[in-house]
Write a structure and sequence with these properties.
- This protein has one domain (15-196): 3-Layer(bba) Sandwich (Glucose Oxidase, domain 1), CATH 3.50.30.
- 32% of the residues lie in helices and 21% in strands.
- It is built from seven helices and twelve strands.
- The chain has helices at residues 15-22, 26-32, 64-73, 95-103, 118-124, 181-202, 209-215, and strands at residues 44-45, 52-60, 78-83, 108-111, 114-115, 128-130, 132-133, 148-149, 153-155, 158-160, 165-169, 172-176.
């Protein structure tokens, strides 16, 4: 990943596509991506009951000025992705920054690290994904020499390119590559419809699982 670069252009999916993804459970999106794109369970939505969904604008490293540059370049509906290296020692995001981001229409944040001011983040109802919380933050500047804005970053082995869509709910977080957004929406919506019809038809009925296991060699005792 190139350091000390600021890229100002981000190719985003349409607003309607982002809205459609926000209405699909993360589990269904992961299924539509053939079980790819999910971040680890350690990255959790710290603001229960909310959904995070938006186009990624990336900040490489924990430095406050690098992060602020990403916020300055973000557009309404974007998610700022802070690739802070997964450190659990210090936080690099909090309530004051979240409040400012809300005034700019930024939809939420994904921090590969820790955050603080959790009560304020929840009061603001600002969707926040992070590894956890700690009141101890960085002394700035922090790793500014290696920072960058709007470059591809990797979190939990998943590559996030600016313009990809970040979706998070209480099941977890998934990254939808921008070029796959339309296909994922179509696949997930069709699959959900089929599942709904299947389970509606089965309501109140036995699932036949005991017989299936018996047929495959299980012994009834």
């Amino acid at each position: 990943m190139p350091a000390r670069e600021i890229h100002t252009e981000v190719i985003r999916p349409s607003r309607s596509e982002v809205t459609a993804l926000s209405r699909i459970p993360v589990a269904s999106i992961v299924d539509a991506l053939s079980k790819t794109g999910a971040l680890s369970y350690c990255l959790k939505l710290q603001t229960p009951g909310l959904v995070l969904c938006g186009s990624a604008v990336t900040a490489l490293g924990p430095d406050v000025t690098v992060r602020r540059a990403a916020i300055d370049l973000a557009q309404p509906g974007d998610v700022v992705v802070v690739a802070a290296g997964g450190s659990k020692e210090r936080s690099c995001f909090g309530g004051v920054t979240a409040a400012h981001m809300q005034t700019r229409g930024i939809t939420g944040v994904l921090v590969d690290g820790m955050v603080r001011d959790l009560a304020e983040l929840r009061r603001l109802a600002f969707p926040t994904v992070a590894r956890g919380t700690t009141p101890l933050n960085y002394d700035y500047p922090a790793d500014r020499e290696e920072g960058a804005v709007n470059v591809p970053v990797t979190i939990d082995g998943v590559r996030i390119t600016p313009g990809d869509v970040v979706v998070a709910d209480e099941d977890g977080t998934v990254i939808v590559p921008r070029e796959q957004v339309a296909a994922v929406i179509a696949t997930a919506q069709a699959s959900m419809s089929v599942e709904d019809e299947k389970w509606w038809a089965r309501r109140g009925q036995t699932l036949g699982a005991v017989q299936q296991l018996t047929d495959s060699g299980y012994k009834i005792v």
